Amino acid sequence: MAYDADETRRRILVAATAEFAEHGLAGARVDRIAAAAACSKERLYAHYGDKESLFTAVLNASFAHLGEAASVDFSSVEDFAVAVFDHLVDNPANQRLLAWARLEQRHDWAASFGVLESVRATSVGHLERLIGEAGEAGEADATGTPQPWSPDDLFALVLAIASAWVQLPELPDDQPRTPDVDAQRAIVRAAVTRLLA
Questions:
Q1: Burial class (CB in 10 A: 0-12, 13-18, 19+), 90
Q2: What is the domain-level CATH number for residue 185?
Q3: Around 164, how many Cα atoms within 13 Å sit in the side-chain half-sphere?
Q4: Which domain range does residue 162 map to?
Q5: Is residue 25 domain-resident?
Q6: CA 35, CA 38: separation in Å to the nearest integer?
Q7: How open is the CA angle 84-58-86, to the nearest 5 degrees?
Q8: pTM beyond 0.85
Q9: Number of structural domains, the chain?
């Protein structure tokens, strides 16, 4: 069977995502990633370089997935917020990766700037279109009502609302908390509606 480099890279990213989400950059072990990806450490290093470069690749992939979720042509800001919420619910490891990067303060954010800027630009472009403003805070929308926030500010607020439940600590196994995702989704929609009122 011929060696498939793309498939090996995919397996490494999947394994590294799980490992980094669980242990962070400092606690992750390359040997565990390689074993989970069914490849040698040498193959892993050949594809991604060192552990820090692999973490950057994983984090950038998580940002790119968020960008894909935000790239749909939404019909309302509420729909945009719900799509972000659904993405975060479906990809809990992505928020953990971001939390580790912030906590450990070892990530080279310049290496992620291109992906982050693409996500921001796409998202803000949708929000500009949806709220009908040119992008300056204080300008009136289509109804003549002044908008208190720029699309960048609105993007930050929508992200905060959509990720609100991700910030809550996990309960011990003997006290399971089963979230009502449908109720949370409705809260996101209602909160963003009120934000825009």
A1: exposed
A2: 1.10.357.10
A3: 15
A4: 51-196
A5: no
A6: 5
A7: 15
A8: no
A9: 1
